[in-house]
Design goal:
Length: 359
Amino acid sequence: MRTPATAPDLAEQTRSLVANAYAWLRNDSLEALVAVGAATVLFVALRALRSLACRLLERPAHPARWRTVAANVARRTHGFFLAALSADLVANVVAPPGGLLTIVDFIFTIAAVVQGAMWIRELILVVIVYRAERGDPDHSTLSNAMGVIRILVNVVIWAIALILVLDNLGVNVTALVAGLGIGGIAIGLAAQGIFSDLFAALAIIFDRPFRRGDTIQYGTTIGTVEAIGLKTTRLRALSGEQVVMANTKLLEQEVRNLRLVEERRVALMLPIRPNTEADRLARIPELVRAVVEAQPLARFDRALLVGVNGNSIDVELVFIMATPDADAMLTTRHVVLLETMRVLHDAGIQFADLTPPRG
């Protein structure tokens, strides 16, 4: 484990470093000038390469997603990092006095840690925005959440970067890491409800079980999603009132997204008189099939006897609607019922009288 230098040691090391650098410049002035010139040329070349990359990646009017990410990363590449990188590459080739090489390596390490934190932060935010835009086209939820997301990302990334920098300075970071861990646990426990709803909102944005404008069913409530906030989701119920639900509670139970319905299954029970002859009962599937197939949006599934009791013989008619439109389903069911009653009456098949006897 490294131990930080004391004040006298640091002063002595500084005097030794200056003396070695002066001796190197005096004795190997040509090598030193070549090293400085090479580092300068390399730095200018890296800056020019960064500018060229930014122009090429931003050229299309509608760039691809990977081009946008690469352009953001290129723009976030700081000049200090390029200078430190140039000096470190040249120093490891030229091999100046040991103390000077150590200082250059140390400066490059710090610059690399800071630059890496900036790159990782940019990549995380770009990925979050990209995933959120897919589930939130109007950016309403994203705009509410991005402020909190940026704070969380910045705190985590820069805390890690600070620990790495202090570790390279020779500071014992074990106690600091333990303190940050305990503090994070305490904050998490204190704000457990807030964070649970926040992460539930992020789960809705990224996993996209539903989005604004969808009609969903939650328990006995059916409504249209009006807004997805950081803590609650607001629905407009079919009866007109607004229903507000906590995001955590909403995702704990089964949610049905009615917008994603592609077909509707309709089942009708036909109670037939119990004294109907078997031959006439056998004709029922054929008769109702013709009725269903006459409807443009309906597809016949089955018509079978499912039960016999003292009051009726039950025939279950099932057909599939090729559209999720509820109005079309109700209209088709109405027509199928009327036509079924008509064709069964013409075939001499009567519905059972299910009226309870008077006492």
